[in-house]
Specification:
Blueprint (H helix, E strand, L loop, with lengths): L1 H6 L2 H7 L4 E7 L4 H9 L14 H7 L3 E4 L3 H13 L3 E7 L3 H17 L1
Parallel strand pairs: 1-3, 2-3
């Protein structure tokens, strides 16, 4: 979602050009990759979390189709639907990276030290 917001105005270009495409936003309300890297280097989490707009309405404001994932099965259905339906689609997919952060920044370091 952080990366998308840096270039989200390109939704207008895609709609204007009549493209058939799907934008999948992995929405964690932060700059997740930067948070992981900084946590891995021992930096405090500062200024990397934020509130997002309603991405479904955002897409619709540009004339695109907005979708929000409600479950893993629903994501699979939405991907098939957007693949088979012409136009510009945006899928807002909420994600929780907390377990990934634990694995990548804590567990792997612990296992490496034990080897």
């Amino acid at each position: 979602d952080g990366g998308f917001m840096m270039n989200s105005q390109e939704m207008e270009t895609a709609v204007r050009l009549g493209l058939n495409m799907t934008v999948l936003i992995l929405n964690d309300n932060s700059y997740g990759m930067i948070r992981w890297k900084q946590a891995n280097m021992g930096f405090k989490d500062w200024g990397l979390t934020y509130g997002n707009p309603d991405f479904v309405k955002y897409a619709e404001a540009y004339g695109a189709h907005g979708h929000r994932v409600t479950s893993a099965a629903h994501l699979q259905e939405l991907l098939a639907h957007t693949r088979d339906t012409p136009g510009v689609h945006l899928i807002d997919c909420p994600v929780d990276y907390s377990e990934n952060d634990k694995i990548l920044n804590i567990d792997i370091k612990k296992i490496s030290k034990e080897m």
